[in-house]
Structure to design on (433 residues):
């Protein structure tokens, strides 16, 4: 193990802290924080807001940092005789109030006589310190309206912000969304999942409009949302061609397996854009569709027997089981049988593969955790004024995954098994990338 003392580039020694020392520092920081909170409670002090304990601490930290910036700018510390005759010197302070995570903070910003000092910690003309805009955007992502954000900031931080400030804080989201929707994508995706969620959006009148979500799993097993589009509900092959071609133009040259609901024109459009792609219909959606044609008293039996069909070991076995299902239910519910017969070619695709791949591609339910968060963020708003407003909130949900919770983005479990099976089946479409 090397020496604990290292020599810097100019020969000065500095102490390199061990993990144990860093842990002690962290423990001391926690103790300090707990002591401050205890003191605030004991003395009846506020933590945030005007005259709050944390507000005062932030003022000290910011002013200390600004003074350090000024010293670096001038080349000498405050009161240092070395500054005499240097050509520039301190010239008092200017007072400014900025918004912060703990409420408004009034700070004294040092000035220099030459007027050349440009602070970085609190930039000129800035009315917020880092973190405040993020708070506004975070509240926006949770589905709060502009008025609700104003009320929240007033209640929690004692800050009276204007609607214009909230709008400016969220305006950057539009630019970020536009960049995200046009970002380059991977060349090959093992799996492409397409699903939709309905959101109330004003289009003349308020209506439930579908938002289609495309999630890709690349060859490394990384899941990501590739695109989102607001539709009308009457999309056909032409519209799907436009959206899928958009993905291809962003770099997606091949998709091994696409899993989707039985959306009109979608399977055909997938193969028009990527001719070699195997299209798998979401079995879970197909079962749900089947139950709509059946009396509720028969749902349990039908769902159980259909499960026996799609959990068969082979496509031949699945077909035999479905024939028995059709014999039992065909006369009573012909629409159920017809639905499965019409889509059979795209129902049994996943049965070619071993279990690790089947779990990934037989349903789009992987997107359900994302849809659940979408619903949470959009439900409280009632409706959105336009498509862009809805997409902004959905984008923020995607951008902010929840720790220790299932998220649509991230690594796919047991991916090594799956990619080995895919490589064996698809050959150089996998191994050449």
């Amino acid at each position: 193990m090397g020496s604990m003392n290292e020599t810097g580039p100019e020969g000065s020694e500095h102490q390199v802290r061990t993990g144990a020392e860093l842990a002690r520092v962290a423990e001391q920081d926690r103790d300090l924080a707990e002591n401050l909170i205890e003191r605030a409670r004991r003395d009846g002090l506020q933590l945030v807001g005007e005259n709050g304990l944390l507000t005062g601490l932030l003022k000290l930290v910011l002013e200390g940092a600004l003074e350090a910036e000024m010293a670096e700018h001038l080349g000498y510390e405050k009161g240092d005789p070395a500054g005499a005759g240097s050509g520039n010197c301190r010239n008092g302070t200017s007072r400014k109030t900025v918004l912060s995570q703990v409420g408004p903070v009034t700070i004294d910003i040092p000035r220099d006589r030459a007027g050349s000092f440009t602070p970085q910690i609190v930039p000129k003309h800035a009315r917020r310190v880092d973190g405040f805009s993020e708070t506004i955007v975070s509240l926006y992502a949770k589905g709060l309206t502009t008025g609700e954000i104003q009320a929240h900031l007033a209640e929690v931080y004692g800050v009276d912000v204007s609607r214009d400030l909230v709008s400016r804080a969220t305006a950057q989201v539009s630019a970020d969304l536009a960049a995200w929707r046009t970002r380059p994508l991977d060349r090959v995706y093992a799996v492409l999942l397409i699903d939709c969620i309905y959101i109330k959006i004003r289009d003349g009148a308020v209506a439930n409009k579908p938002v289609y979500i495309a999630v890709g799993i690349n060859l490394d097993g990384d899941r990501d949302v590739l695109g989102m589009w607001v539709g009308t509900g009457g999309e056909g092959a032409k519209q799907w061609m436009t959206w899928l071609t958009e993905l291809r133009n962003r770099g997606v040259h091949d998709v091994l397996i696409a899993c989707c609901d039985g959306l009109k024109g979608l399977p055909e459009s997938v193969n028009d854009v990527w001719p070699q792609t195997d299209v798998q219909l979401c079995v879970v959606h197909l079962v749900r569709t089947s139950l709509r044609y059946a009396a509720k008293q028969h749902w349990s039996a039908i769902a159980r027997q259909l499960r026996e069909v799609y959990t068969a070991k082979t496509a031949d076995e699945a077909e035999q089981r479905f024939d028995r299902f059709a014999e039992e239910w065909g006369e009573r519910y012909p629409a159920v049988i017809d639905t499965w017969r019409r889509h059979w070619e795209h129902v049994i695709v996943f049965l070619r593969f071993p279990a690790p791949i089947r779990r990934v591609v037989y349903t789009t339910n992987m997107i359900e955790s994302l849809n659940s968060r979408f619903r949470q963020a959009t439900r409280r708003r009632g409706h959105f004024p336009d498509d862009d407003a809805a997409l902004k909130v959905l984008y923020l949900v995607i951008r902010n995954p929840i720790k220790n919770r299932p998220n649509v983005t991230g690594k796919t479990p047991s991916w090594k098994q799956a990619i080995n099976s895919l490589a064996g089946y698809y050959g150089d479409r996998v191994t050449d990338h």
User: Anything to note?
Assistant: Residues 19-43 form the longest helix (25 residues). Residues 309 and 318 are 5 Å apart (CA to CA).
